[in-house]
Amino acid sequence: MAEIDDAVANFAPLPPRVMPALVRAKDWSKTPLGPQDSWSPSLRLAVDIVLSSGFPMALRWGPEFVLIYNDGYRPILGDKHPWALGRPAREAWAEVWPQIEPFHQRILAGDSEAVFARDTLLPIQRHGEQWEDARFTLSYSPTPDPTAPTGVGGVFVTALETTERVETDRRNSLERQRWEQRFNQMPGFVAILTGPTHVYDYVNEAYIAVAGGRDLIGRSVREAFPELEGQGFYELLDGAYATGERYVAHGLPVRLAGEGEDRFIDLLYEPIRDDLGAVTGVFVGGYDATEIHRAAAALRQLNADLERLVLERTQARGMTWRVSPDLMGALNAEGYFETSNPAWQTLLGWSEAEVASMSIWELLHPDDLERTRAGFALTQIGQPAIRFPNRYRTKAGDYRWISWVGAPEDGMVYCSGRDITEEVTAQEQLEVAQEALRQSQKMEAIGQLTGGIAHDFNNMLAIVIGSLDIAGRRLQRGDATVGLYLDNAREGAGRAAALTQRLLAFSRQSPLAPTVASVNTLVAGMSKLLRGTLGERIEIETVLAGGIWPAHVDVNQLESAIINLAVNGRDAMPDGGKLTIETANAHLDDCYASSELGLPAGQYVMIAVTDAGAGIPPDVLGKVFDPFFTTKPVGHGTGLGLSMVYGFAKQSGGHVRVYSEVGQGTSVKIYLPRHAGPPDQGTMPLRPIQLPTAAAEAEVVLVVEDEARVREMSAEALRELGYVVHTAASGEEALEVFDRVGRIDILFTDIVMPGMTGRQLADALRERVPDLRVLYTTGYTRNAVVHNGVLDPGVAFLPKPFSVGDLALKLRSMLDS
Fold first, then answer.
1. Residues 6+ apart with CB under 8 A from 174
2. What is d(CA 428, CA 431) in angstroms, rounded to the nearest whole number?
3. What average pLDDT score do residues 99-103 get?
4. Span 617-643, pLDDT tens digits
5. How far apart are CA 188 and CA 164, in angstroms?
6. How many whole angstroms from its chain centre is CA 653?
7. I want to staple 640 with a disulfide (CB 3.0 to 4.6 A). Which of 122, 151, 210, 502 is the partner?
8. CA angle 80, 85, 91 (to 5 degrees)
9. Distances (CA, A) of 747 to 8, 695, 776
10. Using one digit for the tens of pLDDT, what is the confidence trace for 773-811?
11. In 479-615, where does DSSP find H-type helix?
């Protein structure tokens, strides 16, 4: 059984046992079993077996199935322990007894040897009145007793809770279905191999087509493709698995069984690692490039034939010689061009006399010398040169890439060279774009991780902050000696909330509230704050451009980003120095935008923060936006500052660029999209308006939250404020509550809940009360209310974690509007 294997594999020393002592101390005379000294030898032996077992076990004895259990079984009972000890099973497990009683009765009657049930769903109540759907792998077996009429005195129960594993398997199955669907939509072939023998775990439809429809899943590559022996593929797979290094090849020949000629494939072997970094398998991807390869080979041969023919005719036609834009000439065995056409002077600046006076070894780029010598040697034994690239020096001192075709004849090599400098440069742009793609994919994956962490963290903080606020309000009416501790706890929770907001900002899931604002006004207004924050040793200079464009941006997030950059700049100048904050209008053209994935060309507002500090080394510069990466000592930074700035800028539709030179300083530039309309000077951040916090008479709030502790905290907070409060754990229950009470003034609901979402609940209630006010809350942000991190206009939203004060102000602003 997988559950037992897992339990054994994860075995850890058990805490001190308490159940033997509890069993000995219990007054059993008040139970159907009677005093312990009257117990039969079979019962005593069965109890000893249960209490000494390291697995969760219980004994249910006699017609009443009286419950005796060991320490491993205690967590399954939850709050029912120790009350359940000695109780009939129909009382201890009343909620599931109708479901499990038939098994017990058959075993006790001697009609069944044993019962095994895997991942059985049992709706249980082990924490007060709260219901939960738990899953268990159960084993019911008869307990022998010669004195019993049927020879069976009771039932041995072994129970392993599998709730978490079943839910994890369900999520993993859904995730696998999603990526399998995506892989099947790909034109290329994909396979996932596991273990050092490379066993097929998954193949897409394109892979099956290439494999000729043979069975693959569960077989190793060597078993499925024995004909690959000697072709090198087994060794490449073994190498990728052993070293953890990626293997990429283009136009790789492969011969499959039943095929008379080679196929050609583009191939990727990418090692798959577990959470600890160990290689567990290999991802295989690629394309069948056979037709492309054959067409390219035919085209190369045709081009070679044509270019040679052109070269021969060009030599014979003086006019073509003079007007051709390509370099032409006759190269002797010593490496001198005895003849050269006018294109040499047009393209490289050298006259015919100058070309004849220098060998090619004087003109070549130093890095191309050895490769060119090897190619030149081949022409001396009659082999033509086809598309041979190297760099030639111009008279001005720079170099240009030339692609040569050379035909040897009678001791000479007749050459034609085409300028491919722009093509080579374009290829290096493409490589930069591919690197940007890989970086973006890495940042997106980390963003999903931090977004999930932030959601769970927010739910916990909502409970902490809300509970502390309620306690603080009650202390105002009584003993206030613990106020200092409440303040310390609230401060700590506030810091945790700030960390969460940074995680959300980096993951681009922080809800933004953008307004039309002037960055000049914002930067000018921050000068005093920054001087107080950075200290006297830092000189701050602001350079504000005239005619600055308005930007559509969340000004609070922009302020936070500027402060982060300013503090980084201060830390880079421990002995003091100048920090410059500049604004400017900027136009990012197509050429620049194409080098940054997902960045549209256009007009932007630029804010730059520049320090005169130590600068960032090149090997560190590529990591500065990674979350939790920091070069500061332990305790001097979380490593989330620049990642937050990155996430905020990308989420706002903009861009961040870092420029740095070691010893010279660092400049970080934020680009925000220009707003097409005029600036709105009234959109700068305002201080919170002090609204009445108490409820008006008999105002009714319906709180809907699936997390029990959050629901209880919110309800208690609202009652503290004087509201009439009704609660529900789901959207379906909320509809029943509304039908019962008949009136609510405002709905305060979580958005993401099992079954009916908060948005669906609001829509259903508004069919009955069209003008119903709705306040949403959630630890998530990318959901029915928040699209791409930006709040929908007109939607009231209170993000977790929230304080009682935040909740009070939000409710009054809505109810009084």
1. none
2. 5
3. 90
4. 887 777 777 665 566 544 444 445 677
5. 36
6. 20
7. 502
8. 65
9. 49, 15, 8
10. 999 887 544 343 454 443 465 678 777 656 677 787 888
11. 483-506, 519-534, 555-571, 590-594
Q: Tell the residue number behind the tokens 């009360």, with chain if given.
A: 769
β-partners of residue 152 are 144
* Amino acid of residue 364: L
Distance CA 674, CA 553 (A): 10
Please tell me whether the overall predicted TM-score, pTM, comes out greater than 0.90 for this model.
no
Residues in the chain: 817
Residues 6+ apart with CB under 8 A from 316: none
> In this predicted structure, what is the pLDDT of residue 95?
92
Q: What letter represents residue 376's amino acid?
A: F
> What are the structural domains of the chain?
2-163 (3.30.450.20), 186-288 (3.30.450.20), 295-419 (3.30.450.20), 515-683 (3.30.565.10), 700-815 (3.40.50.2300)
Do the Cβ atoms of 622 and 442 come closer than 8 Å? no
User: Structure tokens of 85?
Assistant: 């000890």
Helix (H, G, I), strand (E, B) or coil at 781: coil
Helices (H), 82-144: 89-92, 97-108
Whether 339 contacts 332, CB under 8 Å: no
Is the torsion defined by CA of 164, 170, 176, 182 positive or negative?
Answer: negative
Q: Give percent above pLDDT 90 in the chain.
A: 31
Q: How many CB atoms lie within 10 A of CB 641?
A: 22
The pair phi, psi for residue 25, each rounded to 5°, is -80, -15
**In this structure, what token pair is assigned to residue 479?**
């003993």
Q: What residues contact 460, with CB distance under 8 A and at least 6 apart?
A: none
**Max alpha carbon distance in the chain (Å)?**
124
Alpha carbons 576 and 557: distance in angstroms, whole number: 27
Q: Residue for token digits 């936006």?
A: 625
Locate 795 and state its tokens: 């939607």
What burial class does residue 689 get, using C-beta atoms within 10 Å of its C-beta: 0-12 exposed, 13-18 middle, 19+ buried? exposed
Tell me the two tokens of residue 213.
Answer: 């429809």
pLDDT digits (tens, 9 = 90+) for 15-35: 568 999 999 999 999 999 999
